[in-house]
Amino acid sequence: MSLYTIINYELMIGNPLWRFGMVLLGIMLTMVAGKIIQFFCLRFIERNRQKQRILVLITILESLIKPLYVAIFAVGLNVCKSFIVFDNPQTETVEGLQPSIEAGWTVSVKIVLAFAIGYAVMKLVDVLEIWLMKAADRTVTSLDNMLVPILRKSMRITIVLITVLFIMDLIFGLENIKSILVGAGVGGLAIALAAKETIANLIGSITIFADRPFQIKDLVELDGCLGHVEDVGFRSTRLRTWDGHLITLPNDKVINSTIDNLGARPAIRRKSDITITYDSGAEKAEQAVTIIKAILANTPEVDAHPHRIPRVHFNEFNSDSLNIMMIYWVTPPEWWLYHEVNEKVNLEIMRRFHEAGIEFAFPTQTLYVKKDDAPAKI
Known about the structure:
The chain has 11 helices and 10 strands. The chain has helices spanning 3-12, 17-50, 55-63, 65-80, 99-137, 143-172, 174-194, 196-211, 251-255, 281-297, 335-356, and strands spanning 86-88, 93-95, 219-222, 225-232, 236-241, 246-250, 259-261, 268-276, 311-317, 322-330. A 5-stranded antiparallel β-sheet has the order 6-5-4-3-7. A 3-stranded antiparallel β-sheet has the order 8-10-9. The termini are far apart.
């Protein structure tokens, strides 16, 4: 006789049909009770949300509504087993379920309850993510906003693994689980050796999040690639170049390379040489320096920090011009604003030089030819 036949035979002995009807009715009533509890919970949530009261409690309660329904079903399933009895023909007494059947029923209830608990914890992780995102929005760095979803995924994976292991323990027993884990450990070691680069990238991502060498949207230069940081993941960092290309760099390579974070500059520096003709003379050269200093002083985007004061000096006699060195810093350090300020300064210098009669120098070459009029000797 098969095990299935034995179990059905043991289950059916001494149980009239109405008892199985009671089991079915109990399960249906449990499901109805779960829906009724869900309905009142939703009413409570909506009423208090409109009044802006106990927002933390209603957020948690809203996330637990569906897991609560599964838990109620597990409790109802456990109660329903009391409707099934076993009529022992040897002792002519009515007893409870056979130990084997009762153990199987209890395991089923525990599995449903474990699923409900795991489901509830996963929903609470979503609530925790909302609070962490609000906290991350209050920080200066934008990497926190990317770290929160990664933490959420990690916690959800951990919860799923723990729930699955607990359910497997209920089904197969602790000793069998140990054997499975030992085999998984050996296999995991082999996988780890084969995926050492992936692990190195994972460690690199953790280092980036901990050290924070740049933020999202920062303009950085990594391994000779210049672009804005678009995303930092578990395996790689993505840069969007000026040409619109999306470059993906492994995180282990990122942390081992020199990172030039242009987005962290307090200002953008410009150094330029302005040349005027030698015919200008000392007075015009001095006037040119004064004009440039006045233009920079009247440009609000030019930084006036004590460590970044604009510098204008007549510093060099070139072979074909008088050289005026001009250095200033533009703030805020926005790339296109920097070019707009440069354009404004350049145009104003040209206008003021034209009004003052100062000529710009350009590469010239004067050739002197000596003419010998003496008669040739014979």
